[in-house]
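hey so u asked for the seq, here:
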Amino acid sequence: MSGPRQPRFVFLLNRAQRVLQRWVETRPEGWEGISSAQAAVLFILGARGSAAVGEIAAELKVAPAAVTNLSKRMQAAGLIERVADEIDARITRLRLTPAGAQAGDTARAVLAGLNARLTAGFSKEELATVARWLERVAELEE
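ran it, structure tokens below
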């Protein structure tokens, strides 16, 4: 006879990801025509002020070419601009435009509401355990 059934973490994680993706896709008012990938770039630039493509790629754990392509679309949409690095003119940095900053603020507010719903009823200790577990899952890629 076996003990209690263990949670099916992979199944639950996949299901949660699908639900979150659908939630994001059905909230167009929060994204101002931007994708979740673009929102991630907006959040990074909002926190840093500016960043090189390689820095953004490293933080997102994607290829620099993916950020380059994404940034071209974001520049065409007026969300970011390219500026020369103040120290090394050979490096191009990305910076938010006022429209990009506004889009980032809107997306951040929508996600704050979602985070409040997701964390309601859990203690800080429980949430710290969940965060630590999700970080471990993310490390599988490394």
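The beta strands are 50-52, 80-84, 92-96. The chain is about 65% helix and 10% strand.
lmk if thats what u needed
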